[in-house]
Amino acid sequence: MNIGLLWQHEFVQNAFLAGGCVAIAAALVGYFLVLRAQTFAGEALTDIGFTGATGAALLGLSPLPGMLILSLLAALAIGLLGERLRGRDIEIGMVLSFALGLGVLFLSLYATSSGSHATAGVGILFGSILSVSRGDVWLSLACALGCSLALLILYRPLLFASTDPEVAAARGVPVRLLSVLFLLLLALATAISVLVIGVLLVFALLVAPAAAAERLSPSPAGALLLAVLFALGSTWGGLLIAFLGPGQHLPASFCIATLATGCYAGATLGLHLRRRHLSQRPAQPPHPCKGRRTAA
Q1: How far from 294 is each of 134, 139, 258, CA to CA, in Å?
Q2: Are the C-beta atoms of 132 and 15 separated by less than 8 Å?
């Protein structure tokens, strides 16, 4: 099947449109996630969001609103607690473990009541982009636009607070408020990313393109642009491989995660080779006229 015939199917259009929206939001938020070294917060929101998704499924609702609501509440709580969470790894780990266990319970109850354990579980854990509806596309578009607009407004103070929070606080930047707002944006991006790649693989889309871009570009604006391009390329490329690849049986989430990881691996290898090449270059001899005084 060629691309023209493929695009005539509505589920393909929905997959590419929703995937593009999710990729942009994930790349923009992911860059600041990498810059702020808050990947653990992203993991926490994903675990708690899983509980919200399975709880919504148990109530007969779409998993996305459930994950979105619970992720936003968790992000607000993490942001407000702030420094009080430092050094409480055991308590945090217990809460996250309980959240995952509660999600498994909800999923089990849903399976008992509806008999569709496999469909619900696989869709939440590994993504179900091929079953995305047009309503999900509009919701993804709204969330992506909201994330992009918010980051555009917060760009300068958030960048300052992310790179040097102590100096930013001394200069009067509301570091605490920015942290809460960023966690809310992270929760939003994480929730809609589950549509495309699922709970277990969401980090591949959030972290890998942004980390690759951060390694390749010293400029924040350039790194953000690269992150978006890597995320879009991974998402749309993964969908094409899933639709047109050998046997056409490869899961889309696996293809997307593989390409995103490949972007990071390629960027890391390229950076290593560049540093090695620079270290092996012979030192340039000083210019013979350098340091001489010209005659008056």
Answers
A1: 75, 71, 61
A2: yes
Task: Domain 3-276: give its CATH code.
Answer: 1.10.3470.10
Task: Name the helix (H) or strand (E) containing 198.
Answer: helix 175-216
* Residue (of 126, 136, 140) closest to 255 by Cα position: 126
Determine the pLDDT at residue 141. Answer: 87
Which residues does the chain have with pLDDT short of 50?
Answer: 293-296
* Residue of 182, 231, 239, 226 lying closest to 204 (CA atoms): 231
Closest to 160 in 3D by CA, of 185, 186, 178 = 178
Average pLDDT of every residue of the chain? 79
Give the DSSP per-residue string, 132-151: --HHHHHHHHHHHHHHHHHH
Whether the CB-CB separation of 17 and 143 falls below 8 Å is answered with no
Per residue in 115-157, pLDDT (tens digit) is 555 555 566 666 677 777 787 788 888 888 988 999 999 999 9
196, 256 in Cβ contact below 8 A? yes
DSSP assignment, residue 296? -
Q: pTM (2 decimals)?
A: 0.81
- The 3-state DSSP class for residue 257 equals helix
